[in-house]
Amino acid sequence: MRGLDLGAIDWSEMGTATLDTLQMMGYATLFTFVIGLPLGVLLFTFSRSQSLVLGWVYRLISLIVNILRSVPFIILIVALIPVTRAIMGVSTGVEGTIPPLVIGAAPFFARLVETALREVDRGVIEASQAMGASSFQIIRKVLLPESLPGLIAGMTITVVTLVSYTAMSGMVGGGGLGDLAIRYGYYRYETGVMIVSVIFMVILVQVLQMLGDRLVIFFTRR
Amino acid sequence: MIELKGITKIYGTKKTATTALSGLNLSVHKGEIFGVIGHSGAGKSTLIRCINLLERPTEGEVWVGGVELTKLGKRELQQRRRKIGMIFQHFNLLSSATVYDNIAFPLTLIGTPKAAIAQKVNELLALVGLEEHRHKFPAQLSGGQKQRVGIARALASDPDVLLCDEATSALDPQTTDSILKLLLDINKRFQLTILLITHEMHVIQSICDRVAVIHEGGIVEQGPVTEVFLKPKHLVTREFIHREAAGEEGLKLAASVPHPEWSRLVKITFLGAKTYESVLSQVVRETGVNFAILQGTISTIKDTPYGQLTVSFEGEDDRVERTLSLLRERDLDVEVIE
Questions:
Q1: How close, in Å, is residue A220 to chain B by CA atoms?
Q2: Domain check: are B204 and B290 in the same one?
Q3: Which of A131, A138, A152 is the best residue to mutate to test the B interface, defined by the most B CB atoms within 10 Å of its own CB?
Q4: Minimum-distance CB partner of A126 among B54, B105, B108
Q5: Do residue B81 and residue A126 have CB atoms under 8 angstroms apart?
Q6: What is the pLDDT of residue B258?
Q7: A interface test, pick of B92, B151, B161, B165 with most A CB neighbours within 10 Å
Q8: What would the pLDDT profile of B231-287 be if each residue is shown by its tens digit?
Q9: Does any CB of chain B come closer than 8 Å to the CB of residue A219?
Q10: Residue A112, pLDDT score
């Protein structure tokens, strides 16, 4: 068992890997939010709809969301290679991992959004209807502000999940800290690189979780 | 102002159908405070929610301010709803918005300019006495304060009608009275028509002009509060009133007290200024009969004083008869019990 030899670590590669992870996480988070939030709102709205048609639309979207959530992410990445290539032009590197990350995480986030919206007091929605608010106004001025702490908590969980997903994307040449840990640490027995990469990821997750928790507390008015 | 014609509301599918309202008619005049009283499950919640179509009646017409709401499209209904304020038992305020923003909410829905909103909200804050709490969130307020925010919010869009859905049922008696006082004040100041539902006779007695008693999805009795309160006809109405006045029990007790055979048990009802006059003693002095008060209440219904006494008269038959007719001549309501 060798000691942890920090001198043997290629710090510039470590730096690049960290930046790659942050980039993947950042873009994936952005698109997950942009796609997942409206999807979650739709799920919530359709699930409560009296209309038969929308009821079926809800079941359909719900089914797709469940399928995407149940396929193991590592398989999703491989299965999505043609799609990724069609969207980004490449299927490897930072760009190549973003589509599978988003497609994997957006349905997950959408479910969390739906759950957060369900927590909104039914009476408040009713009061807004009584005041003549339109459906869109209810979503924008009642549902979203009222469920903000829940939405932030959901986003935090999603971002943390994305960090672990970025690690898996290393398997298909995605780059980043997870990739580094596997290539050097696991395949080449460079334990030092593996440990440092993992420590970086642990720190990243800790910071993200703390930030999320702080925001939830800040926006909780109950 | 509010007109319900043949309202029927059936919940559930054909198999599980439960009828909440059956062919109900109701008419509320402009500027009055109209109370609907009923036990839980009688249909009063459904009734009030049918007025702004939070619940769509299965059958029947809803008219508010001369417009048939049941005929309107989605957009027009949204517009009309802005003129129908509503307050709730559990207040239903936005927990994520301050007192100020809650009151401003209906105005932001219609895109009112900021300056106009500020002016209106400040007026309303003063009206409900919450100026110092404008920056607080609902969780920091007491129940009574929350309901005041609810009232201010309901008034922000200058409604013609205010619907009160058990507005005081979650409040303690003292707070209830202060909220009722505020409602009465608003009614007088703005000539605002108020329809309230409640299960407390006290609420009806304090502020309502007219009352309807709802039972099993239909109105069983209605009229001016003084009339319904003092001469209840339906069993359910009596229950509500006697829970408040403890009358029936007292009367039973009075009747069971041994009294001379020749005496006559009579219920006398005073209404208005006469309540405080010495009518009874003047009359008995003239006819020379004796009386004992077995049970009695003197109180007010809204602003009208009333008194109700159960009295046993002792004396010769013709003298007692003359006493009763003299009392009737003085416009008292006299009911011979035995």
A1: 8
A2: no
A3: A131
A4: B54
A5: no
A6: 65
A7: B92
A8: 888 888 888 887 655 555 666 666 666 666 667 888 888 888 888 888 888 888 888
A9: yes
A10: 95
Q: Which of B45, B95, B149 to mutate to test the interface with A (most CBs of A within 10 A)?
A: B95
* Calpha distance B184→B166 (Å, rounded): 15
Do residues B243 and B315 make contact, with C-beta atoms less than 8 angstroms apart? no
Domain around B133: 2-243
Cβ contact, residue pair A130, B137, below 8 Å: no
CB spacing of A142 vs B94 below 8 angstroms: yes
Q: What is the mean pLDDT of residues B118-134?
A: 95
- Taking the C-alpha atoms of residue B238 and residue B172, their distance in angstroms, rounded to an integer, is 24
Please spell the DSSP secondary structure of A152-171, one letter per residue. HHHHHHHHHHHHHHHHHHGG
DSSP string of B183-194? HHHHHHHH--EE
For residue A221, give the nearest of B96, B106, B157 by CB distance.
Answer: B96
Nearest chain B residue to A219 by CA distance is B96
pLDDT at position A1, please? 45
pLDDT tens for A148-164 read 999 999 999 999 999 88
Which one of B243, B258, B275 terminates a domain?
B243
Residues in CB range of B223: below 8 A, 6 or more apart: B210, B211
CATH code, B301: 3.30.70.260
> Would you tell me the crossing angle of helices B279-287 and B317-329 to the nearest 10 degrees?
150
Ordered by where they begin, the domains of chain A are 10-219 (1.10.3720.10)
With a cut of 80, say whether residue A172 has pLDDT above it.
no
